[in-house]
Amino acid sequence: MRDVFVVDAVRTPIGRRRGGLAEVHPTDLGAAVLSELVDRSGVDADLVEDVIFGCVTQVGAQASNVARVAWLSAGLPVHVPGVVVDRRCGSGQQAVDFAANAIRAGQQDIVIAGGVESMSIVPIGSAARWGTEHGAGVAYGGAGWIAHHGDAEPSQFVAADEIARRWDVTREEMEAFAVESHRRAVHAIDAGYFDREIVPVAGVTRDEGPRRDTSSEKMAAMPPLLDGGLITAALSSQVSDAASALLLASQDAVEKYGLVPRARIVASAVVGSDPELILTGPITSTPKVLERAGLSMADIDLFECNEAFASVVLAWAQETKAPAERTNVNGGAISLGHPLGATGARLLTSVVHELERTGGRYGLVTMCEGGGTSNATVLERVS
C-alpha cells in the first residue's frame, strides 16, 4: 500500500455558542478552510479528486451535502465532488481516514478531508436529530434494537457518570483535569501556538472557549447534570462552531506536483464498544492503532484524546498509561470546545502543527463516539 501524506492542515477558530461564529453559515465555515487549504498548499484545485467532510447533525443548513456546497461556496472547480460522513463525534477523523484509505489503495491521489459543525445554527437535540418539532414518540431504534438493548435511548451523560464510578475517578480529579485544560488552552493561545493553523473568519481570530477565570472552587459549586451524578457542565465538552480540513496526497502526487508534505498518516483504526457505556472506545482503539503502526505508547510524543467528558480521558489514561504531560498538551474540548463533525479533523490539524513546533515525531489522536465507537489515527512528522 502507498504512503499517505498531509500536505497542509487548517482550521477556523472554535466559536463559542452564541459567539462570534454563531451566524456564519456552516457551508461558509467549510468554504473558509477549503479556500485557505488550497492557497496554502499551492495545489491546483483542479487536481483535487474528492472532498470528504464529517458532519453530525445533517439537517437544515447542514442537510444538503455540506462538503460539496462548501467547496462550491468557495468558488472552486465544479467538477470536484463532495460527500459527508457521520460517525458521530469522530466524523471529521473518519473523513480523513476514508480519504487516506482511498489514497493507500491507489484509487485517488489528492483528497481533501475534514469536517464542519455549526451547533449554534443547527443545535444538537431531539428536534434536530429526528427532524420533528419535538422528537416526541420517535424511538432511538426499532424492534431489533429494543430486543437486544431495551427501549431507553442511551445517554452520554449517564455513561460519563458510570465511567467515573467504574474507574474510581472522583469529581475532584475531574475538576483538576478541567482546570488544567483551560490553563493549557489559555497558555497556548497567548503563546501563539494555534496561530499558524487558524484561518480567521468573520473577524474571529482566536478560539473563544477557554475561560481565564475558571477555578476548582467555581467548578465545585456547579450542580451535577443528573441527580446524584458526578458530571457537571464544567466537566463536559463545550457546544461550538468550527470547521477544519487537511489536504492528503500520495507519494506520486507529492513528487509529480512538487508538493511539500508535513506529516505522514502511519495507521488508523476504528472499533465498536459497549453501546450503553458509549464512551469507552478509545481504550481499545488506542492499542489497536499502535499495533498496526508497529509502535508503543512510549513512541508517541503527543496524545489527543477528545475531552467529551473529563471521566472519559481519565479512564482512558488509567488503562493505557498515557502520561498527562503528553496528553492534550494545549487543552481540549472542555476548554476549546467540541464542534462535533469538525473535532476529529481539528485534533489532527493541531497535532500536525504541534509536532512541528516541538520537534516531536509521532502523534496519536483518538476519541469516543455516539453509539459506542472510536477512531484512532497515528501521524508522523515529516522533517
TrEMBL record:
GO molecular function annotations of the record: acetyl-CoA C-acyltransferase activity
EC number annotated for this UniProt entry: 2.3.1.16
Major enzyme class: transferase
Any one Pfam family match given in the protein's UniProt record, by short name: Thiolase_N
Thiolase C-terminal domain span: 261-381
Record's keyword terms, sorted: Acyltransferase, Transferase
Domain Thiolase N-terminal stretches: 4-251
Active site: 89 (acyl-thioester intermediate), 338 (proton acceptor), 368 (proton acceptor)
CDD domains (alphabetical): thiolase
InterPro entries for this protein: Thiolase (IPR002155), Thiolase-like (IPR016039), Thiolase_C (IPR020617), Thiolase_CS (IPR020613), Thiolase_N (IPR020616)
Family annotation (NCBIfam families): AcCoA-C-Actrans (TIGR01930)
Protein family: Belongs to the thiolase-like superfamily. Thiolase family.
Name used for this protein in its record: Acetyl-CoA C-acyltransferase
